[in-house]
Records
---
Amino acid sequence: MKSPFFNEDHEMIRDLAREFAEGELKDAAVEMDKTEEFPQEILDAMGEMGLFGLEIPEEYGGAGMDVRSYVCVMEEIAKHCASAAVFVSGFNSLGSAPILMDGTEEQKQKYLPGIASGKEFMAFGLTEPNAGSDAGSMTTSAVVDPSDPDYYIINGRKCFITGAPIATNCLVYAKTSPEKGSKGITCFIVGMDQEGVSVGKHEEKMGQRANPTSDVILEDVRVHKDQILGTVDEGFMNALKTLSLGRVGVSSLSIGMAQGAMDLAVEHMKERKQFGKPLAKFQALQFKMAEAETKLNAARLLTYNAAYLLDMQHEGEKVDPTKDAAMAKFFAADTAIEVISTCLQMFGGYGYSREYPIERIYRDVRVNSIYEGSSEIQKIVIAGKLFK
Amino acid sequence: MNILVCIKQVPDTTEIKIDPVTNTLIREGVPSIVNTFDQYALEMAVQIKDKDPDTKVIVASMGPPQAEVAIKTCLSVGADKGYLICGREFAGADTLSTSYIISRSVEAIEKLEGIKFDAIFCGKQAIDGDTAQVGPEMAEHLGIPQITYAIEAEFVENKLRVKRETEDGYEIREAACPCLITVTKPAFEPRYATVKSKMAANRAKIPMLGVADMDIDVERCGLKGSATKVKKTFVPVRNKNGIKIKEETPEESVAKLVELLTGAGVI
């Protein structure tokens, strides 16, 4: 689709991602959903292609591209495999944005090349069992080691951590000054092989099942102060900014998935005949699909616009894309859930069968309005800007 | 080792539409790709380069200016450089003329690059024309040995050792370099481009070769130099009235076919 938001480079990246998704992910997605395993060779191939370091500068092994390139890749990959797209966002967004934002030169050199190549997954450990949307109420603590002030001791439990079982490192947000609430949180880069770090039981999820997800348990984990990302007590801003950037990721994931479902439904409706004619000839169904198509494209424009504004901001223009990104995330996620439900309806009984991919897409999309800031949280952000 | 890979840009569709007036392919609105067999030929060459990084892989394609895109695609998946053989004089060339023109470009490219090609890799045929003639004819024009239907190739001393597919199985053959091979579907798939290689390829300038850049006889180019002429092209109509002959053995099937054809007065 020609769009004023994209240039030739973006379109080329999109073509590359589309070609890969159609060739390697379309069929593999079915098996992944059953086995809950993401094939290592696909992960390696995506890493080699450079799909995991899109926004990481070239000097750290990335492609040095922009938010819109990331959106193009997310959209095309998500059309065929949500789990693969979640890996794209894990590497490109939640895993690398915090380091790009606040990392020292040494930390950037140490961690970013591994992330860009897809060889070292960096998990994002913010959520806790009793601190979801209210992330500031976390209880994981980091206290200065009384025997050596260069070290901190971390204790706590992070939950629903995407990629934790395969991660090399994990960004752990912990309270260093509990009395200061959310202004007393520090971010640490913790090696998953460090003593005292373990992963909890495998989380059996409704959808996006090939993204291994589990708790990260921290028991007296001793970390050097060099492992602090950014400034002590200022980690919460890092987390919030990362999530703010991450919103276009879930937005593009949502529109990609919804487009994938629309493509399947349109094809099915042209072929499936009832009462002597194809479903596509029934006006009642045409209208439902017309509404779905319109809403999907509205979501798409919100997403593209937010990505464009983020790029403008990176280029130094004075824009604040916070509200635009929140609107894109909320609207794209909710719309995708609705559109995919409509598409499933077009498949009738077949849509309810695991033989058809629409059933998986319906499960895969449900979390989109929940994670990386629920729709309700997005509305708080939007209203906050509206009534400031 | 230096390898020249000859590629063709073809429409990416099996549903070819033909202009009923001019009898030519309608290319508008049809996405173009690098001919599938040429992609295999390129991948085979690039795999040789993977093993021996001193290998140079150069791509050449004859086509209209927009075929530059196909060459860029090749650059993104491992080719070092690409040349577009392009000119008004080449329009309407049949396989004889096409193979002549491309064979003349070989020397020109060698001069420009300051190298000699050890081998020329071609796809066995283009998926649009399906003639499978250009590769073999090029070898004849150049007076070099050829091996067709290759699925594996490696340089052994100053020879190219090729595993080729035959109707009965496989053959291993060797040809002295320089030689030409045509490649059929091998056991491997062409690689994907990377984000970086795709960007670099898109920024590459593709040099063009015209009649002025080659030692070439213009009389043998394009329509003038073509020995054949397309009278008509059409999509065959699917005949639903056909019958299937499936006897116990192939011999019995043949006997039955002969009987039917004789009965119908066809043979």
---
Amino acid sequence: MVSLFTLDLELIARIIAAIAAIVVAYLIGKLAESQIRKARIEAPPEIVYNIARSIKLLIIVIGVFAALSILKVDLTGLLIAAGFAGIVVGLAAQQTLGQLFAGVALIVEGRLRVGDSIRIGDDWGLVTSIGLLSTRIRLWSGEVLTIPNSDVMSSKIYNYSKSIARRSNITIGISYDSNISKAIDVIKRVLEDKELVLAVPEPTVIVDSLGDSAVLLRILFWVPTQGYWTVIREIIREIKEELEKEGIEIPYPQRVLWLKTPVKIESSDSSSNHESG
Amino acid sequence: MLFGEYQLLDKLEFEIPGGMLVLERTSGNNVRISKIAGELKSSKLTSLTHDSSVVLKAVPHLGGPVSSQCVYVVLPEPIVLPEGARLQYELKIPVDLGVFLGGVLVDVIPLGKVKYALYGPSDLGDICRYTDARVLESYGVHVARARVTLRSQSNNRMEITKLIIPVKDATVYLTEENELYFSDIDVNALSPMHVEVRVGAETSYIVLGRLISLLKGSGALYVMKHGV
């Protein structure tokens, strides 16, 4: 009875020690991860992030092995079992492994970096983290989108942070009665006045097409990436204001109707009747 | 003249192209530097460390809304460099206003309107401050004169229409005649796709078919790889 009680106590002590080993390993891992993330390392953030997480995981695994050793579990048998289990898990977790390899490829290739402004599919946003399994993007609307790395690898990505300048393409319609040359001069003056519209490549204003209701002018100009959206917003507003000031009309959609038979149109403020046809 | 040394006791106001520059002590050693252009006001807070002296000096292009380390100069007329030619030339380069407090550069303010240009493709090129004859005439900028030496080491005749000038290590100095001068510029044209522009140093030479760079002192180098 006494020996059974002693055995129980010893087992309880071992269990407590094993749990303590795991908890300590977890805390050390977490501390290591946090210190590595805060450390001044000359490396891209996504690499630092993944190294920190891998080190945390490694320390926790060491802690688990230490706990198993404290519990006197035969690790040799466990490792052999783990080998077989690895094959089974490998077959079962093909998709996860695919994402893992895609994650490594993504980091090595450098297609994306943390902080890049990107468009992937229909989603626009800022890359906030590139993990081994998934990539997180903070959308401009504020939501955080998590995409499996295999999907990121197979998607078309527009990376706006790779370019130092972007070309803007705006179409504005002016009425058929307006003077096209004057409108082009007004638009060019607005573009030249803006400091952030690049002088080279030179801004271009062309008559793009003759639309249903307006002569469509296409305005092409380059802007440094960092000020792109601000400049676009200001330019569109200023072009509209300047065109109005110069008496150049931006028309509403119009239709010219030709009626087969004449129609009488009665005016409310005059007694005379008009005929149209 | 705007450039010079001043004592900041309470408040200093300067007229600059397109607005006003105001330096004022706020409390203790804190100094507010404000640029007022019409209704727009932008300001920065800094501290005056050693003494109350404020020095306004002409500095190379470093200020403005976009960070750039080069000036894109469109030459008033193309320069034709025959094989092995050497040519001396003088350029006018716009300069900014450097605000030094206690000998430390604390702010760079563009004098006059600023325009930028993209040299090269958008993913490999650089955004530089832009200047051409029109900018010099109508943008109210302050300019410094720069002596440019152009050498051709190309086997063909070359035509140069623009220069990209690095400004990182460049200096601007005021002569006794109150004229602003920019660091000397050396242009070494090896081919239309490899033109070296070095500021404040000697350029490289091809000796026995090998490129050898000879430096007189520290200098900034820009290699024009996207055409001249």
